[in-house]
Every structure is written in structure tokens, then in C-alpha cells.
Amino acid sequence: MVQLAALGAALCAGLVSAGAYPPDVVDELAESSMPKLKDWLAKNPQPGCTYETAAKRTEWSDLSLDERKQYTNAVLCLQSKPALMSSQAPGAKSRFDDYVVVHIQQTPRNHGSYWNWDRYAKDPASSPLFDGSEGSMGGNGAKVAHQGIPIPGAPRPYDMIPPGDGGGCVTTGPFKNMTVNLGPIAPTLQQIPRNPRVDGLGSNPRCLRRDINKHAAAVTMANYTHSLIRSNSDVYWFQTVMEGQFPQGKWGVHAGGHYTVSGDPAGDFYVSPGDPVFWLHHAMIDRVWWIWQLQDLERRLAQVSMTRTMNNFPPSANGTLDDLSGLGVLAPDVKVRELMNTMGGLEGKFCYVYE
Ligand SMILES: *[C@@H]1O[C@H](CO)[C@@H](O)[C@H](O)[C@H]1NC(C)=O
Ligand SMILES: *[C@@H]1O[C@H](CO)[C@@H](O)[C@H](O)[C@H]1NC(C)=O
Ligand SMILES: *[C@@H]1O[C@H](CO)[C@@H](O)[C@H](O)[C@H]1NC(C)=O
Ligand SMILES: [Cu+2]
């Protein structure tokens, strides 16, 4: 019903043609898991949040044109506000950049709308997300010759994602005039000017580049996401398969989504949030995690694994639910457990479902 209503709204806005995106297997799994969520809520009432009052996070192409423009205008607004972190990161020129700084600083140890990968996986460059229209998140980059994206540690032919048809500056859509300030740190394009600081936090103004890539998008089709959710009951394996098992030639849906955008900074492991579409990709990551939790909320709502450092380097203690997670000067530290419950975390400030 929810999907029908959303499709109806999009149809009335003249955005998508009837049946353009019928529910995929992951959407069906999410829909059929709602009774589990309602049962759990009945047994575990949450502070300040009920199924009826929960906000609904809506897929990009299910938003009306106006709603999409509100979203991209909000991003442009963040990009017009002064930075709070420019003393520690001279390259941070806006409030948007502040979030990129936090990600750069936290990469070695650890997001409204989302992007349902499957909808656009076959032809991402022509999709409502990247077609360059005013209702998109901006278009592909201009075509420039470049190599593909190397995947270190993967066997041939999975060691290189072939290039797409872009690679140059984005010239269409809401972010056509956007300036990228921070990074690069781990660029996947060769022509990116170097940052004046080794930590990537210096000022390095340049255009937003993309290389919308259908080869990477192919591993984000719904059957991959469905298998990820259904075949991994342990959070360690769920996380490991999601992030990719490169030595086995499996890119994973996480890397798949990042490299669907590619370019600069989206293709840069550290600086990727500097491309506004990062946030929609990571909202989908959150949605997939949420659907995974819904399969067994009693056990999965509060399951974490792995240590506090990436690949346990340098060696560190196991992460716990009481570890603090923060956004530097942007938000106070909170316990990880509060961030894992979308139905009442942070005393009910987190209260949302995905549709
Ligand atoms: C593009 O960016 C430049 C530099 O930030 C600015 O001066 C100009 O007004 C912008 N143009 C548009 C159409 O936003
Ligand atoms: C998903 O489907 C494609 C073909 O449509 C197939 O090549 C691929 O192996 C499938 N992936 C999984 C994880 O089932
Ligand atoms: C850390 O987690 C691993 C995997 O769950 C477990 O085997 C190990 O005993 C834990 N280490 C400590 C010190 O608790
Ligand atoms: Cu990511």
C-alpha cells in the first residue's frame, strides 16, 4: 500500500511512468517484515516513537519534483553556510565540508531520502538520480579518457572495474557549479590536483567529477542485496559480505554503490561524502541493515562486531554498544546503541521506517 501510494504521488507529479519500478525482491522482503516490526514494538514499547508516528524515508524517484529540489536546495544551503572546522581543516569552506572533515578523520574507525540501487543498476547514467535534470542529484561527468578503478587484492578480471563514459566535471543538474574543497586522499582518477596537506584537509578547490559506472552498478542489483540479507545471520558476515570480499573477486554492494558514482571525490575512500550523492548511498546501506535487523529484532537490533580500527590495524579492542560516536563540533557524542534503533533511539529522536 505504501509503495502504491508513493507510486501514485510520483505519477501525479509526472515523474515516472506507470510500473517503472515495480517492487524488487528486497522491497518485498521489507514489506513482509513489517508484521515482525509491529510485534516487536508491541512487546517493547519505545520512548516517543510508534509505528504510526514514525517518519517515512522515501526513495529518490518516489519523491515529487518539489521534494527532490527541496533536498538538493538543502544541500546547496549547507554549502553556503560558513564552516565551523576551518581552524583544524583550512580546506573546509562550508558547513557541508565540515561533515566531510568528520568523515576523513573517522574513516580509520568506522545518514532523509535514499537510493534504491536496484532501480537504476542497469542504466544509472539515464536514471532519475543521475540524468542531470533539475530533479536529479546532478549528471555524469564530461567524457574524458581514463583507466578503470583498480580493486587491490582482487583476482583478474575483478581487479579492475572498467571505466564508464564520464570522468570529467559534472556540468548538469543542481551541483553543476559545485566546488570540491577537501582531499583527495585516495584518488581513483589520475588528473586530480594534490592537496597541499598530507592529511587532505588543506584547501584544494576543483570541480565535482563523476564517472557513472554500470559495471559497478551491476553488483547492486536486488538479488545481491537479497542474498546478503538472507544468507548472513551473523553481523560479522553481514558486514563483511556487504563491504566486499575483494580477494574472492566480490565487490559487495557497498563498494558497488560507491563506484557506481566514482570520480572525485565519490571514488575516494576518505573524501567520498564530498559528493552529495554519498548520503543517499549510505542511507540505502542503513536501509539494508534495517531490513536485516527486522528479520530477528530480539537478536539483531543490538549486534555489533569487529574492533575499533579498520581491519583491526593497529590492533584495538572489540567495539561495544557503549562506545561513543560523535561528529566533532557538529553534534554531541552518543552511545552506539542509540544509533542502532531507528524506532526510539536517542530518546525517540530517531523514529523512522523506510518505504
Ligand atoms: C558558480 O560559482 C561561482 C564561484 O563560486 C559563483 O561566483 C557563481 O555565481 C556560481 N554560478 C551559479 C550559476 O551558481
Ligand atoms: C544476480 O543475478 C545475476 C544475473 O541477473 C547473476 O549473474 C548474479 O550471479 C546474481 N547474484 C547473486 C548474488 O545471486
Ligand atoms: C572480540 O570479538 C571476537 C569475535 O566475536 C571474539 O572471538 C573475541 O573473544 C573478542 N575479544 C575480546 C577481548 O572480548
Ligand atoms: Cu561507504
TrEMBL record:
Molecular function GO labels: metal ion binding; oxidoreductase activity
What PANTHER family does the record point to?
N-ACETYL-6-HYDROXYTRYPTOPHAN OXIDASE IVOB-RELATED, TYROSINASE FAMILY MEMBER
Signal peptide stretch: 1-20
For this UniProt record, the keywords arranged alphabetically read as follows:
Metal-binding, Oxidoreductase, Signal
Task: Please tell me whether the keyword Metal-binding is annotated for this protein.
Answer: yes
Gene3D superfamilies, per the entry: Di-copper center containing domain from catechol oxidase (1.10.1280.10)
Q: Name one Pfam family in it.
A: Tyrosinase
- Domain Tyrosinase copper-binding as annotated: residue spans: 275-286
Task: Tell me which InterPro entries the record gives.
Answer: Di-copper_centre_dom_sf (IPR008922), Tyrosinase/Hemocyanin (IPR050316), Tyrosinase_Cu-bd (IPR002227)
Q: Which domain of life is it from?
A: Eukaryota
Q: What is this protein called?
A: Di-copper centre-containing protein
Asked if the record carries the keyword Metal-binding, the reply is yes
